[in-house]
């Protein structure tokens, strides 16, 4: 068993980390000359995402379009036969149909067409950039380094400027660094927690420390939904690979003590994670989230089949809600599934749910078939957590949110096609089922 294989079976050492880098170099050198720069560009992605939305969007869009051009030039359409890929195309078709029949078709069509670069990027990673597991592991390492860089940046902000209204803003200058930790870093975070529980010796301790450090900065950044996503993802990760009840209890206890210590030492932010959370629950008119989500539901009832058109809600809502409505308009309804209903109707909701379910189930089945591999075993947690329905969310069709979200989902989807070191026949059977 090579060092890179050991690294994801709980036997990680610094020598194995070095071997991961050596294996990645070897894999890059084995690529055709014209492909090598694209793969290097892909591996640098977590650092582009640390800069700003325009460089990050350029990185993602270039790689997605390159994959489409490569597939056309090589007449490679085998990837189109996978169930989750077909589901994504079906959902996109409904988005295009909804947009074309809406009141403002030009704008809605533009938004629907441009949105597809995100799932296309996931396909590019799953079927091109991440097909070599040596490069996939290198990208996970790159993502982990990016996550720790973000925690270092936020630590520096805490020491130099402190929180602003209970939030942190570096390096972007707005309230999104917590999205980087919770979304971009989620695949690496899940692997860290799983290794903290199922790993051995120094590996377990180091992964636990790094995961705890990044979790602490989510609290300092004032993130609530993102913190819940990370905590729940960590719990699932600890249960999904080499489950050890004593270690799970230890990890949960340490995380709980860490959060309590932060709340005690930073009393000013405690209310944001306690009283404010209860007040914001969308269960009555006292909650602004209830009134915003209710506006989306009201718009859905006006156009229940195909909705008001992709991304049209922000412009059309004032004309839909009466002036005396108890609900209010916003850029989006703050929930992915309500937004699907609002902007693409019941057809978009059904096909969107099918797309997300297909991704989660593809990864879950692959993880069970390849349960000795920590990356494959924990990958299903990423789309499950990021698309979980009972949470407030950013804009489903928005640029910045989707760059963060789909960079993580793309990395997780590549894990569905990792070969098993233990039962290759079982994984082969899964791959055959995924084509059906």
Characterization of this structure:
The chain is globular. It has helices at 3-7, 14-30, 36-43, 45-48, 53-73, 83-100, 105-115, 117-129, 133-160, 177-184, 186-198, 201-220, 225-240, 245-265, 267-273, 275-280, 288-302, 313-320, 336-369, 374-378, 381-386, 399-414, 424-434. It contains 23 helices and no strands. It has 436 residues and is mainly alpha-helical. 71% of the residues lie in helices and 0% in strands. Helix 11 crosses helix 12 (201-220) and helix 19 packs antiparallel against helix 23. It has one domain (3-279, 334-434). The longest helix has 34 residues, at 336-369.
- Strand tally is 0
Global geometry: globular
Question: Quick one: biggest sheet?
Answer: none
Tell me the Rg in angstroms: 22 Å
First-last Cα distance: 32 Å
Structural class: mainly alpha
Mean pLDDT: 90
Strand content: under 5%
Number of domains: 1
Low-confidence stretches: 421-427
What is the percent of helical residues? over 70%
H and E order: HHHHHHHHHHHHHHHHHHHHHHH
Number of helices: 23
